[in-house]
């Protein structure tokens, strides 16, 4: 199957700093990438959908100025958590999809990034 | 509104069979996915159903009834490594995945 990598796998930072998370599709071109957040013992929550070359579409309740998403190429999307606070501590997971909407399009998940804000 | 229901937790014995149910009400339907997620890891794909019926893949099978808004994941010959959360997800009319809260499956020897 297709491989999606995420970096870093774990990050611990101080409150007020910004953290960048990279998501890469290694062996396919991802026209669409998704960013999820998962709190302990809860399901995945979609934060935003990004299409290569265009602005991300954020879900209701997700601050676009706080969670900056850039999808500059077909293999790379980045999520920057700006001015992180302890409540932003979570497991952030990206996924990538290659076929356009209308086809069976499995999402391939990255391994996730555990963010801890002190 | 959109709603996906699955049991919070189930327990089963190694070597046995377990069925995890998922019922849903969503705006549009473009398929149902089952994912497995081990603690601290990202989900991994198990199955996809878009037509009614049973899809079998090794020890795992998934069933769908669109008219009933119902699916189940059947795991046979359970192994200890099957202990994980199992997530049911619906692809809605916008081709976005709507996720259930997941079922934590505990396998006992």
Question: Can you summarize this structure?
Answer:
The complex is a heterodimer of chains A (118) and B (109). Chain A is an all-beta fold and 118 residues long. Chain A is 0% helix and 50% strand.
Jot down its keywords:
heterodimer; A: about 120 residues; mainly beta; seven-stranded mixed sheet; four-stranded antiparallel sheet; 11 strands; about 50% strand; B: about 110 residues; six-stranded mixed sheet
Helix-strand layout with pairing:
The complex is a heterodimer of chains A (118) and B (109).
Chain A: E1 4-7, E2 10-13, E3 19-25, E4 32-38, E5 45-51, E6 57-58, E7 67-73, E8 76-81, E9 90-97, E10 108-109, E11 113-117
Chain B: E1 3-5, E2 9-13, E3 18-25, E4 32-37, E5 44-49, E6 53-57, E7 60-65, E8 70-75, E9 84-91, E10 97-99, E11 103-108
Parallel strand pairs in B: 2-11
Antiparallel strand pairs in B: 1-3, 3-8, 4-5, 4-9, 6-7, 7-8, 9-10, 9-11
Structural account:
Chain A contains no helices and eleven strands. Chain A is mostly beta strands. In chain A, the strands form two sheets. In chain A, strands 2, 4, 5, 6, 9, 10 and 11 form a seven-stranded mixed sheet that branches. Chain A has a four-stranded antiparallel sheet with strand order 1-3-8-7, with no helix packed on it. The termini of chain A are far apart. The model of chain A has no long low-confidence stretch (mean pLDDT 89). Chain B is an all-beta fold and 109 residues long. Chain B is built from no helices and eleven strands. In chain B, the strands form two sheets. In chain B, strands 2, 4, 5, 9, 10 and 11 form a six-stranded mixed sheet that branches. In chain B, strands 1-3-8-7-6 form a five-stranded antiparallel sheet, with no helix packed on it. In chain B, a hairpin with a 5-residue loop joins strand 9 (84-91) and strand 10 (97-99). Classes of the chains: A mainly beta (118), B mainly beta (109). The interface between A and B is medium-sized, with 22 and 19 residues.
């Amino acid at each position: 199957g297709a491989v999606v990598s995420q970096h870093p796998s774990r990050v611990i930072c101080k409150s007020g700093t910004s953290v960048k998370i990279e998501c890469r599709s290694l062996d396919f071109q991802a026209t669409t990438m998704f960013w999820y957040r998962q709190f302990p013992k809860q399901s995945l929550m979609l934060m935003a959908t990004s299409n290569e070359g265009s602005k991300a579409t954020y879900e209701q309740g997700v601050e676009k100025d706080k969670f900056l998403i850039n999808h500059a190429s077909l293999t790379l999307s980045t999520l920057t958590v700006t001015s992180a606070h302890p409540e932003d501590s979570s497991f952030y997971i990206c996924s990538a999809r290659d076929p356009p909407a209308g086809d069976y399009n499995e999402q391939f998940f990255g391994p996730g990034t555990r963010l801890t804000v002190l | 509104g959109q709603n996906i229901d699955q049991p919070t937790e189930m327990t089963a014995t190694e070597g046995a069979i377990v069925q995890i149910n998922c019922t849903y009400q969503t705006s549009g339907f473009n398929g149902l996915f089952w994912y497995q997620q081990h603690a601290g890891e990202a989900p991994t794909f198990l199955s996809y159903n878009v037509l009614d019926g049973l899809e079998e893949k090794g020890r795992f099978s998934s069933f769908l009834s669109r008219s009933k808004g119902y699916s189940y994941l059947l795991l046979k010959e359970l192994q200890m490594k099957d202990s994980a959360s199992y997530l049911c997800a619906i692809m809605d009319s916008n081709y976005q995945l709507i996720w259930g809260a997941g079922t934590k499956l505990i396998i006992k020897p």
